[in-house]
Amino acid sequence: MNFLLDPNVAYLLLVGGLLLGILVMFSPGTGVLEIGALFMLAVSAYSIANLTINFWALIVLVVGIVPFILALRRSRQYVFLVIAMAALVVGTVFIFRGQDGGPGINPILGTVISILSAGFVWVVGRRSIEALTMPVKSLKGLIGKTGEATTDVFAEGSVYVDGEEWSGRSNVFIPAGRPVKVIGREGLVLLVAPVEQ
Q: What is residue 1's predicted lDDT score, i.e. its pLDDT?
């Protein structure tokens, strides 16, 4: 357990746990990411509790979550994403105090991981903001349109309608590749019928 008291190892665990936590926001319910994030954050919390830290850096790191959530949920502006990235980098790099009072991690490691993590947060955040600002397609407009069954459709299946892949359901068996017509919907599932050729 001595290696967990190395600031460089603790830094990597902390950054890895935070990045997995960000991924959990975009793919909840898988279990694997949640367990990985909790494990890495718990082990880094052990290191934080046993190493000398800069409390101001911990506060910057925790407060940096707010602009990230604002960027994705409310404002959808890139300025909040930049603030969140800066808080992530500053908070993680300076959280462990060295014997001389400066950062306790290797500067090269800190630079490389900061660039990689900031790039990751930028790509994930930007893509999320773009997805959130896309216009929502009206599902009512799909009723009456024709498409194609991409898998066998009966109790469940997939259909390609109006340029998008949808979950589909039918009262009769429709083999993959057959044309279908949308006759209704249940939530995001399209109810389809075979088109007679």
A: 60
Supply the pLDDT for residue 197: 66
pTM for the model stands at 0.63
DSSP SS3 for 76: coil
Do 72 and 83 form a contact (C-beta atoms < 8 A)?
A: no
Task: Using alpha carbons only, give the angle 169, 170, 176 rounded to the nearest 5 degrees.
Answer: 85
If one counts the domains in the chain, the total is 2
CA distance 159 to 165: 6
Whether 155 and 129 map to the same domain: the answer is no
Which residue in 80, 81, 112 sits closest to 11, CA to CA? 112
